[in-house]
Amino acid sequence: MIPLAERMRPQNLDDFAGQAHLMAQGAVLRKLIESGNTPSMILWGPPGSGKTTLGRLIAALQKRSFFQLSAIESGVKDVREVIDKAQRQHFFDQANPILFIDEIHRFSKSQQDSLLHAVEKGTFSLIGATTENPSFEVISALLSRCQVFVFKALDDEDLVRMALKATTQDELLKDRKWVFTETDSLVLLSGGDGRKLYNILEILYLSGEEIINVTNESVSAAVQQNIGRYDKGGDQHYDIISAMIKSIRGSDPHAAVYWLARMLHGGEDIEFIARRLIVSASEDIGLANPNALLIATACFQAIHMIGMPEARIILSETAIYLATSAKSNSAYLAIDAALDAVKNESSQPVPLHLRNAPTKLMKSLDYGKDYKYAHGYDDHFVPQEYFPEAIAGTPFYIPQENASEQKIKERLIQWWKDKYL
What we know:
two-stranded parallel sheet; Rossmann fold; Zinc Finger, Delta Prime, domain 3; 4 domains; 50% helix; 5-stranded parallel beta sheet; 20 helices; 7 strands; alpha/beta; Helicase, Ruva Protein, domain 3
């Protein structure tokens, strides 16, 4: 069955829901579309606000070929193939096509660079959709060749109008009797997203009831029973990243890769995933395997250069490496213990021998006096006090039971004897 969101795509500009600041009679974007001379543009706004719908509508109204790429799944090769197809159409005196790129902010620099020449030549009109600020995510050379239009989340009135229209005009939904007793939950759970609204209406339709009474309770109950879909903008965004990190912490690479796949399939921001892997490397693996942080940091840099779809392999490699690594949270515990100590103590003065003495006055006050330069001693170590006197000998870092930290523990005992034991 074709999804309701597809069946309800508008056929003309008057049917387009929301974005009145751009699409009302006389508004700037509408005038551009009606002129038939649509420039390359970036549509920036939240999910479900109509960006893809508008791209398709422009192509239909202006009778232009429509090519669509998803930045999540496409690479430079796919871009070049579309450019070749668009160039071949010019031989038949057709209007230049529209290339719509969803989630264009996920394209790497090299992928965005591959678009530049075709945009400059007018091989196609580029319409890029993004949920992220294009000033940060789209290269300046490409951004300067596009007009940016900011989309807003659909407001409550837009959503209610869309619901009433769908239930009275859609070929399937209109066969049932719909009674809108309450719409608060319908609007709230849609969250300004037209696709979510249509998904909720389809869930209610599939209940099989001849009379569908839309109430706050019925909508909430129906959505709770069908919450399996990944929603990168809602609670699932946090729940699934949490599941992946806990799988890594629990040393289960199979579950870690599964939750990673759930996020990638749902269109999660790959840089968000990579940032969480960096945190996991320091919080959950830490000094048990210091290379983990290097691997996770390299992962973040690599996916930024490569982009999807190849970035999925780099993320998978990193998640598996972290999950199968030895674990330690000693650094995490150490800094939290030190922060607690700082919060609960009065401000302790820095011992005089640890203070810097760049002036004669400071030297006369004994700043830096009796400080022992560690590199001047055997093994680059000499016992001296580095704490304020009031908390001397307080242990914050406690080595844990893994091979790497046991070596650290042996060195600490060799240096400090029983001072921190």
